[in-house]
Amino acid sequence: MIDVLIIFDLVLALAIIAIAAGVLVLRDAFAMIVCFVVFGLLSALAWVRLAAPDVALAEAAIGTGVTGALLLKTLAHLRGRTLSAPLRMDGPVLANASLCALATLAGIGALLATPIGGPGLEGLVAQNLLASGVEHPVTAVLLNYRAFDTLMEVVVLLVAIIAVWSVERGVTRAPAPVMGEVYAGFARLILPAAVIVGVYLLWVGAIAPGGAFQGGAVLAAIGLILLITRAYTPLPAHRGAARIAFVIGTALFAAVALFVAQGGRATFEYPAAYAKSLILIIEAVVTISIAATLAALFHGREPVAVTVREARA
Amino acid sequence: MIIFELVAALAIMAGAGFFIAGTVGLVRFPDTFCRLHALTKADGLGLALICLGAALLAGSAGEIARLVLIWLLVALSAATCAHLVARHARADGQAHREDTSQRETRR
Predict the structure, then answer these.
(1) Residues on A contacting B at a C-beta cutoff of 8 Å
(2) Phi first, then psi: what are they for B46, rounded to 5°?
(3) Does ipTM top 0.95?
(4) How far apart are CA A65 and CA A104, in angstroms?
(5) For helices A275-299 and A147-167, what crossing angle results, to 10°?
(6) A43: alpha, beta or left? (left if phi > 0; alpha if psi -120 to 50)
(7) What is the pLDDT of residues A54-106, one digit of tens each?
(8) CA gap A243, A226 in Å, rounded
(9) What's phi and psi for A169, nearest 5 deg?
(10) Nearest CA in chain A to B85
(11) Whole-model pTM?
(12) Which positions in chain B touch A190 (Cβ < 8 Å)?
């Protein structure tokens, strides 16, 4: 008998491909963003079906929630100038298409080269879980076995905010948008709840799905709510604290990695007795950096007063 | 417990039914306000029923508490979102149903 869920999986897979094609075919920027968000939600569902709730959480929180907000904010920023140009086969499009084709081919090659049904790394991960300092295998992989990759992911966010602050500057002078009493009441109720959910996701990462990126994304959402209502307005004086918040995750992560590398241990080789504390400290600080960076990316500019001449240039 | 599982399955199926009804409303109704009406009513009840079904199948008090929290938070944000969309549509001067039908006959 065929598993009923196979049918569900097939429909889900077809829906994901269809919505991905929709994102590419649509010429209206807003519709494209909506489709992209739906694509992210369906992907999160697919990750759940693949028994990877950690990836599903990250996809839903960062890939869909925060990225969707960033895209909509960018669209509002571009108001007046349109993204909705007719599709033309010019140089950049062709270059992009060939690069995408190359990446797809590489993916297919990697898939074909992988032995089918062979043992993955699951056994190795399970064997060494006790030495990793945490009880959740995914967190053990992310923060211990391949911590270098995770450090680079934090660096990517740091590079992104450096780029955004280099490109766009200015202090918002426009009046705050009126969102109404319902939204204000919602924000009052949801802000404390979001703080608890974010910290819970970080804390639970040691034993169950969750962790720094998921918790950081939820905490970043608090920043988004505050920024939208202008309950908090970034000012030039706040830049010092913001820079510390952006850098501290990368800095502490790298410092711990280098600091443990003495007395015959390699970089990132946490001493077993301190592994859990070190991982929790790294995750907590990285969460702060992720949350601050994502919220700052949403704000999208360095809060510094720009003189009129600079603004015109 | 077979009776729990049966009630849970019924609740989840009824919830899915409400979601489908809401989606049909979203596709078929003529203007933003009608569509919001269909969505918020149907999805609010649909989510409540699905959470109820899942809570009946849940193994521990902690899981039930989390399901209740999920239901509360999603219901709260869905209602707020719908209100914001309607508010924006009204400020934008979007037409109600009568005007929309006239516009469509003109086309």
Answers:
(1) 179-180, 182-183, 186, 189-190, 193
(2) -60, -45
(3) no
(4) 26
(5) 20
(6) alpha
(7) 899 999 998 899 999 999 988 888 875 655 566 677 888 889 999 999 999 99
(8) 19
(9) -135, 165
(10) A179
(11) 0.83
(12) 73, 76-77
